[in-house]
Design a protein that fits this description.
heterodimer; A: 116 residues; mainly beta; seven-stranded mixed β-sheet; four-stranded antiparallel β-sheet; B: 111 residues; six-stranded mixed β-sheet; 11 strands
Chain lengths: 116, 111
Amino acid sequence: KAGVTQTPRYLIKTRGQQVTLSCSPISGHRSVSWYQQTPGQGLQFLFEYFSETQRNKGNFPGRFSGRQFSNSRSEMNVSTLELGDSALYLCASRPSGGQKGTGELFFGEGSRLTVL
Amino acid sequence: EDKVVQSPLSLVVHEGDTVTLNCSYEVTNFRSLLWYKQEKKAPTFLFMLTSSGIEKKSGRLSSILDKKELFSILNITATQTGDSAVYLCALRFQGAQKLVFGQGTRLTINP
């Protein structure tokens, strides 16, 4: 079974640009969440999606947005990039709706964003 | 704000040593506490603890949760160089995927 797949793995942008990151969850997983990881702040929750609906949102500005498609794939977008947005963006999926599991999240390898 | 504090932030030991990593928190209304290992990119799941006093074990790793004193520990015995990683503790809240992470403990095992 393929794991969580994130693309692109690395990207470099300049301030003011926007970026879209993609995440394909493990087959059969309907819940997807996004996290930002920086050396200073650690891992911080961005948003959570289930069945194309945002269920929970972290404490990030409106420049950070996301969506989920009917096949459970998810994208997140960051507009008007700032230097501080440089981070590793991790996507995670989890089985839900009565499926067996420990409740753990399965993480992808992440997208490393550098803003110059 | 929900807070999870891990200690130490960094730890360097020799192969074969036993280490204890700590995770303390300031909230009580969480569903479970999870431990993850992050070597390069993707954190990988180690344990999920929901009940106080019940030890979870997997090989040389074990973990326990104390809901009264609001902390958890992760023990690694007979450490190996492959145990070198950042160990993350997180709280999961009821009905949500949202995890609140601690800042992690960077463990380095020297041969």
